[in-house]
């Protein structure tokens, strides 16, 4: 069975992880402090995609992809409060023009974990007062790039950001503060809903949606306690957030990576003997179907906005891709509202606190294809009925 004609097959990246030179962001400042990033590396150069985006576009074309999910770096566009950098705006415009010229659909994320330092100094998303700055930035981007962007993704994984940045404190802003965690959780929802209105006022036809991180939670034993725990995990991890954003969303973006087995006693997380990737995450390609099915209740078109695995040697990725395509096909056959798939990632990049040690790329950081790049290209070709 072929996929629907307009199905999107792409890959995803984020500006901070690939572009380099994002020296005005809060993450860049955070990276300078010893102990924050494995191996002491920084995002200063990353994949140098700011200068080499045309090479990235070639990688997309070489692998038959028809869509690209990328982000715009707020800290580059508005490095100081109210000062919009025309040069940076035009630079991004050129990239969008080249993507368009090559018939690649563009999904742009407006917040992918990083903030301008001036916003971070005012307490970032933990402060309600900063929402207006984010809305202003997003509206400006919608005005500047009107007609060029096919999809706006407001926020990337706000649920993970709250967890890592305000509960664990292992990511920038590096706080362990449950009050701020709650505040930022609720401010993200407010921000998403306001950005939706702001962009709609500029580009009423362009679909807008959030991107959340999902996970398949499996009960260790098929009893009421373990099953209830999994229900609660889904609720707190992503459903409660989606419930509050779904009305102001034209689509739902789901990042799906792993399965976690839970039991209602200590230790809550059970290590099972399923295959693990380089991160130690349990690889579970069939979970993509469950995740789509679970989120069908929001009544919106669904895009898998990220999916992939840390696999430096490419020992798991080829089979993982094939299995994933089978499950996507099943989802389509069962009429689930799945409209596109973005692999994470086009190329190895700066993996936050893990630096460059976790390799998610179809290509290496110097843009050499791994065997799975060819496999992805072939799967896309077959799936498009060519
Ligand atoms: O690299 C990250 C990305 O920034 C957000 N989603 C998960 C990816 C892999 O960890």
Describe the fold and architecture.
This protein is α/β, with parallel strands linked by helices. It has one domain (8-379): Alpha-Beta Barrel (TIM Barrel). Helix content is 41%, strand content 16%. It contains 13 helices and 9 strands. The protein has an 8-stranded parallel beta barrel, surrounded by 6 helices. Helix 8 (158-168) runs antiparallel to helix 9. The relative contact order is 0.15. Residues 14, 17, 157, 255, 306, 344, 351, 360 line the site of 5-hydroxymethyl-3,4-dihydroxypiperidine.
Characterize this entry briefly.
The chain is α/β, with parallel strands linked by helices. The protein has helices at 15-18, 26-31, 49-62, 74-77, 86-101, 117-121, 131-144, 158-168, 178-202, 224-245, 287-295, 317-333, 371-383; strands at residues 8-12, 67-71, 105-111, 151-156, 208-219, 252-262, 269-270, 302-306, 338-344. The protein has one domain (8-379): Alpha-Beta Barrel (TIM Barrel).
Primary descriptors:
386 residues; 9 strands; binds 5-hydroxymethyl-3,4-dihydroxypiperidine; globular; alpha/beta
Which CATH C-level class is it? Alpha Beta
The biggest sheet, with number of strands, parallel, antiparallel or mixed sense and barrel status, is:
8 strands, parallel, barrel
Helix content: 40-55%
How is the quaternary structure best described? single chain
Indicate the low-confidence ranges by residue numbers: none
What integer value in Å does the Rg equal?
20 Å
> Which fold name corresponds to the CATH topology?
TIM Barrel
What is the strand tally? 9
Distance between the termini: 12 Å
Name the CATH homologous superfamily: Glycosidases
Q: Give the overall average pLDDT.
A: 98
Q: What's the CATH architecture name?
A: Alpha-Beta Barrel
What class do helices, strands and sheet pairing give?
A: alpha/beta
The fraction of residues in strands falls at 15-25%
DSSP helical segment count: 13
Bound molecules: 5-hydroxymethyl-3,4-dihydroxypiperidine
Order of strands across the widest beta sheet?
1-2-3-4-5-6-8-9
Give the total of domains: 1
Shape annotation: globular
What are the secondary-structure elements, in order, as H or E? EHHHEHHEHHEHHEHEEHEHEH
